[in-house]
Specification:
The protein is elongated, with a radius of gyration of 24 Å. The chain contains nine helices and no strands. Helix 3 runs antiparallel to helix 4. The relative contact order is 0.07. It is mainly α.
Length: 191
């Protein structure tokens, strides 16, 4: 939208030039607001979520460094690009922004509602690079197989033996219900 508005603003003799320029400024502000809310944190947070424990800090460092490097590049080339290509320079940014929609859809697994161990397990399982068809990779809720794996690990590694098997069953049922309703926190039901 910004690209189109700037194009009309630069048309010689266009009568609505002032209104189009004002609208393009408004869309710039809207873009920066929604970019900040929705995407700005990704280069800082996503690398720490998807990398294994051994590479988590290295991934965060690489994500931060590349974010700053590309921001520097944008700041350096934008004035030259606008001066050389005028409104057509914004087509480059339009193409880049549009390309991120399929890239994120195809290649970025969902991390909300997952533990870091779940993400490690997801990548260890040798999943396909295109994640959009994997229901565990794109599910908004924590996949059942991760919950069951965690419960089995807790049982296997626990040194405490429950006195009453019914209490254990009740506790596991409570965990399963809480997870289905939006996530287990460990404080849902005291037994």
């Amino acid at each position: 939208m910004i690209t189109i508005l700037i194009r009309y603003n630069e048309l010689p003799g266009y009568s609505g030039s002032k209104q189009v320029a004002s609208a393009s400024i408004a869309f710039f502000f809207l873009y920066y607001i929604f970019f900040g809310i929705g995407w700005q944190g990704v280069p800082w947070l996503y690398p720490t979520e998807i990398n294994s424990l051994a590479y988590r800090t290295k991934g965060a460092a690489l994500g931060t460094a590349s974010n700053w490097a590309f921001n520097f590049m944008v700041v350096e080339i934008t004035p030259i690009g606008i001066q050389s290509l005028q409104w057509k320079f914004y087509i480059i940014w339009t193409v880049f922004n549009a390309s991120f929609v399929p890239i994120v859809y195809l290649f970025y697994p969902e991390t909300a509602g997952r533990t870091l161990e779940d993400i490690d397990r997801f990548f260890r399982e040798d999943n396909k690079i295109i994640v959009c068809r994997d229901k565990d990779a794109v599910s908004e809720k924590r996949p059942r197989k991760y919950v069951e794996h965690e419960q089995n690990e807790v049982r296997r590694n626990s040194s405490v033996v429950a006195a009453d098997p019914e209490v254990v069953k009740k506790r596991l049922a409570s965990m399963a219900r809480a997870n289905e309703e939006g996530g287990w926190t460990g404080h849902e039901e005291k037994v």
